[in-house]
Design brief:
Layout (H helix, E strand, L loop, with lengths): L7 H8 L19 E9 L5 E10 L2 E6 L6 H8 L7 E6 L2 E2 L4 H5 L2 E4 L11 H12 L4 H14 L15 H12 L6 E5 L7 H14 L4 E5 L3 H7 L2 E6 L2 E7 H6 L5 E6 L4 H7 L2 E7 L2 E7 L9 E2 L4 H15 L2
Parallel strand pairs: 3-8, 3-9, 6-7, 7-8
Antiparallel strand pairs: 1-2, 1-4, 4-5, 9-10, 11-13, 11-14, 12-13
Helix pairs in contact: 4-5
Length: 326
Amino acid sequence: MISQTGRPREFWGRIITEDDAPSDTLDTPTRSGTLEIRGLSQTYPNGVKALNGVDLDIPPGMFGLLGPNGAGKTTLMRIVATLQIPTTGTVRFDGADVLRQPQSLRRVLGYLPQEFGVYPSISAEDLLAHLAVLKGVRPAGPRREQVKSLLELTNLYDVRMRAVATFSAGMRRRFGIAQALLGAPRLVIVDEPTAGLDPAERNRLLDLLSDIGENTVVILSTHILDEVEKVCTRIAILLDGRVVAAGEQKALVDELSGRIWRKTVARAGVAELRQSLHVLTIRYEAGRAIVHVLARSSPGEGFEPFAGDLHDVYFAMIAAGGQNSE
């Protein structure tokens, strides 16, 4: 489990001093700016259009990036992380042109991809220290303290001398989180960060990211809607490389007000409702199905109005986006 010692606000203050921060970074961690994405498109040589005119404004805070497989989420994150250049469009962070000045962002970026490799036979402590050097964390004393703090924060300190290559999937994920937080980044991008973590670890990680997100742009990409619903104030939904919804989570839910209806039915009755109604989601409780339906008026006997939630928004937007793309 991730250690609860050292809250993120205390953590940033303890490990970062004026001597640690590179002189040519964008600013200090407490004055994080906004990520601005305009007209971002990516067409690969095989003709696949991964992104199609993406426009987003992402201020400091937790931002959920949602969408089915193939929607363009990973491409978008790789471009923002300066790992690939888009076909067209611009990315600016705190006013700086990220595509023209990638180093200005890399010094204040924390990135956790879905998959990452490690050097064989190198211990967690040595590898994290090596990555800290590459990230420009200095001098040596504060760098060692930062490595120690991150290993404690992710509950890897007791296994710090073990090779990362021998770690379990969950332990590797925690190490990935530790390396993403090196240097107190002002922009953090995490792709499926809770993969391989048990429920207790997952909750602690989400709490950690939420605390960091108070003064930092944190982009969370995940297929687990409950995670985004819990920690993200703002979201964007991608479908076929397009943004089909973006904004405050509460505002997007409110847009469906008066149009969500629910009814508890036997499992055998779900198929019949699917044939005649616009079923958004099906929740199960005590062996029975709770069906959520999108309709402007009551869809039938036994249905009651429901305020809606992120699950309803997601599937409503995906359905509408799919129809618009045909």
